[in-house]
Give the backbone structure.
Amino acid sequence: MSKFWEITPLSEMNAEQWESLCDGCAQCCLVKLEDDENGEVFYTDVACYLLDQHSCSCGDYQNRCVLVPDCVKLTPGNLESLIWMPDDCAYRRLAEGRGLAWWHPLVSGSVETVHESGASVRGKVVCETEFDDDELEGHVVDWVR
């Protein structure tokens, strides 16, 4: 039997289906730096202050875009323009015609597999309130997938 993400285009998913695609890795919640000259995006190990670093979920998901003005609400309409989304992001994988990763909760049946696989930021990040913006370059990482 086909799963909804295999047969339903992203643009036709209902809100519940769309939200369930988030694998809970929280890589999109990392502070990113962009090279002004070439547009290249660099991830840091510095996370948004709203991120619960253990569960890798937002501490105030409903109000995140108000509380964090540069937080981007992912939608089918803006997905293609968000080139900074991690390669392993479920939304990006499906948009590119790839299936969900084995560790995705919809595939594995467990929210823990994203952490067990090493795909999540659990245990790898610090909160943005602990740093000044001028210190961010020293926190660039290469483990974001």
